[in-house]
Amino acid sequence: MPEDWLSLFALVGAILHWILLIGALFTVPVNRKPSSATAWLMLIALFPFAGFVLFLLIGSPKLPYERRLRQLTMDELVAKAISEARDHPVFGPLLNPHVPARYLPFANLSAHLGGMAAFAGNDVAVIDDYDEILRRLAEDIDTAEHFVHIQFYILNRDEATEEVFLALERAHQRGVQVRVMLDDFGSNRYPTSKQTDDYLKTSGFGYERILPVRLSKGQWARPDLRNHRKIAVIDGRIGHTGSLNLIRRDYFRKDDLYYDEVVVRVTGPIVGQLDAVFITDWYSETDTLLSQAELYHGEEAVVATGTMLCQVLPSGSGHDDENNLKLFTGMIHGAHHKLTIVNPYFVPDDSLMLALTSAAQRGVDVTMINSEAPDQFMVYYAQHSFYDELLRCGVKIALYKKPILLHSKFMTIDDDIAMVGSSNFDMRSFQLNLEVSMVCYDRKVVADLRQIEATYLERSMMLSRDIWAIRPLYRRLFENIARLTAALQ
Question: Where are the transmembrane segments (predicted)?
Answer without folding.
Answer: 6-28, 40-59
